[in-house]
LysR family transcriptional regulator
Amino acid sequence: MRTEYLEYLLEVARTKSISAAAKKLFIGQTTLSAIINSVENELNVKIFLRTHRGVGLTEHGERVIAIVEDMVAKNRQLQNLFSDTEPVRRNVALVAYPSACSALGLYLTSRLNKAKEEVTLSMREVVSTKVVSGVANGMANIGIGASAQHEFFNNQYTAHNNGFLFEPVYTDHFCLCVHHDSPLAEKVIVDISELGAEHLAVTDSHPASSVGGVLKYARRFSVFNNMEVIKKAVLAEQLVAILPRLSYFDDPLVESGALRLLELTGFETELSNFLVINQNVGLNTQEQGIVALIREFYDELEQRELGGYVPEQ
């Protein structure tokens, strides 16, 4: 029996609800029910009694939970036995599309530093179409992806087929980034058809079907391998760039006015960000903490846009 299953049993016993426990544990209700059944079969005992009022303990279940509480406490004691002399660094792996790697990576690092968490964060940048498959292939248990509307359901379908949690977290939009001296900088909204005379900078790391559709309007374009090179190209050569707004999160070049961000029309600019979690394996404590921080990050983004964000002191 896996040690994390003991934690699951305790959470169900505390909440008296499989659905409530599943939410706290960041796993699916069906997955948690299957784990409970497997434990009961392994021990050959009925632990929980399911009723219309919730979940209760059987007589045997009370004895099981008492032993489990002791085992969990001993396990935590063992894990922390030498924590005062040599902290154990725990690695949390994420796969994310480029904009999330840039913005979310810094946010998570800052929060972990403030909390003095002994966690090694490993973010692996993948193209947006490879996030769900990256989780499926075992690169990480947590992924942050983005897709245009017509691709969104394909990602959702693939995630659900693998038994993953798939959660939309934020709606982003592609925007036009220009040099502050560009004639376009005086505009607020630019239609894609107005870019015929511009030299366009793009990256193939973002949904190709979205950006690819605009290339027919540009006579000249360059495909760069990362966003930072694109920003340098806009500054040094006065190219114009099409990237998600998240790519410019807290960007000093935008805050200083060196780069201007303009609203785009004329093609599908909406970009849905989603969180995908391999709930089949069960997240450890550190991974659960990272998931909570990811949700906080996207909540703060929405609050900023609504004008209700208050920075931490």
